[in-house]
Amino acid sequence: MADDFAYLNARVRVRRGTLLKESFFQEALDLSFADFLRLLSETVYGGELAGQGLPDVDRAVLRTQAKLVGDLPRLVTGEAREAVRLLLLRNDLHNLQALLRAKATGRPFEEVLLLPGTLREEVWRQAYEAQDPAGMAQVLAVPGHPLARALRAVLRETQDLARVEALLAKRFFEDVAKAAKGLDQPALRDYLALEVDAENLRTAFKLQGSGLAPDAFFLKGGRFVDRVRFARLMEGDYAVLDELSGTPFSGLSGVRDLRALERGLRCVLLKEAKKGVQDPLGVGLVLAYVKEREWEAVRLRLLARRAYFGLPRAQVEEEVVCPCGSRWSPNPRPPRGSGSRASRATGPPRRRRPKASWKPSWSGAATPWWPWTRRSSPTPSGRWSASCGAGTSPCSCPSLGLRRPSRGTTWKATCGSW
């Protein structure tokens, strides 16, 4: 067992090869439930797929993720193990908050989306079956989980669900920040700072109009959302989101509800985490892999429900696609058929793999680009060109669509099926 990331990252590179391709999710958007099961059985999740029902899909996803992610801390020792453990503890916080919401709303345990963390599924089931949140804390205390102590302390202050979630996050991130400072992993510290900003944005949205004191819920340690912006957003001042231009959260401008905010934050954090693939000797590659697996689990559960209940494609497509550009938009897909005839003519054929020589062009001074594109210099006519290249972006070249806005002269590019 190694005490650095060289061995662990070698194992992670192999596991990243089993991540589902974008073509899988595009195909699954139109499948019946029987065909979805057939397609899923041909992937890494097929080994755990032991039935033909929706709970069987959820169980296969959960158990496969536990095998491919949950065992990562056991593959290393020392500082490397502590860094990976901090990443998975973030998922434990998500799981506890999800269970608290499920208990409050009467949702069954099987409907709760559990992410791979440091605890087994059986422990979370026992926590869900506890009589009240205090009983959940007692269950978590048996394996000595730090969230047990945090939950007990929060319950002494309030029983309101929104406040419990916010205070849990505050205590958790304070403890994690202290632990991360002792590790020589700048990629981990930078990412956790973005998580703090994201949590502050979530909390501000959840507590809007509550009249509560912002200082009691504001998380320190973020990079872009300070105490003043947090307080303004709690009061409903959405101009705060416009002020985040030039930051990873610039695409949140225009968001006005919690659901759209969650979707935007998910895409922003995924994009930032994926930058870690360039960190071969640190925790960055593990961070990227863990977040890619989380996103994969979310998409599979949503697509399974679309197929099982016969929901229209448009109803879930926006939830299972993260634009691969640098800017996320709360309304990424324009109505079908919009855009000029010229823009549709210059775009690639829909759902067709482009040839190696295919090169879309954009006019204007701005140069759109994605992780999987290569920028070239402007041609004599002043037109930029980009070509499809290898990469692991959530989007692929066949899903690129080009359109010209109704007013203006700058080409824009969006990801999605057209």
Give the key terms:
16 helices; two-stranded antiparallel ribbon; 5 strands; mainly alpha; 418 residues
Note the topology.
Elements: H1 5-16, H2 22-28, H3 33-41, H4 54-68, H5 78-105, H6 121-128, H7 133-141, H8 146-155, H9 161-181, H10 186-206, H11 227-234, H12 239-242, H13 258-274, H14 284-309, H15 313-317, H16 341-346, E1 361-362, E2 373-375, E3 384-388, E4 400-403, E5 412-415
Name the overall outline. globular
Helix content: 40-55%
Number of helices: 16
What is the typical, i.e. mean, pLDDT? Answer: 81
With strands numbered from the N-terminus, the spatial order across the biggest sheet is 1-3-2
Beta-strand share of residues: under 5%
How many beta-strand segments?
5
Run of helices and strands: HHHHHHHHHHHHHHHHEEEEE
Q: From the alpha carbons, calculate the radius of gyration and give it in angstroms.
A: 22 Å
Report how far the terminal alpha carbons are from each other: 49 Å
Please outline the major beta sheet: 3 strands, antiparallel
Low-confidence stretches: 324-328, 332-418
Structural class: mainly alpha
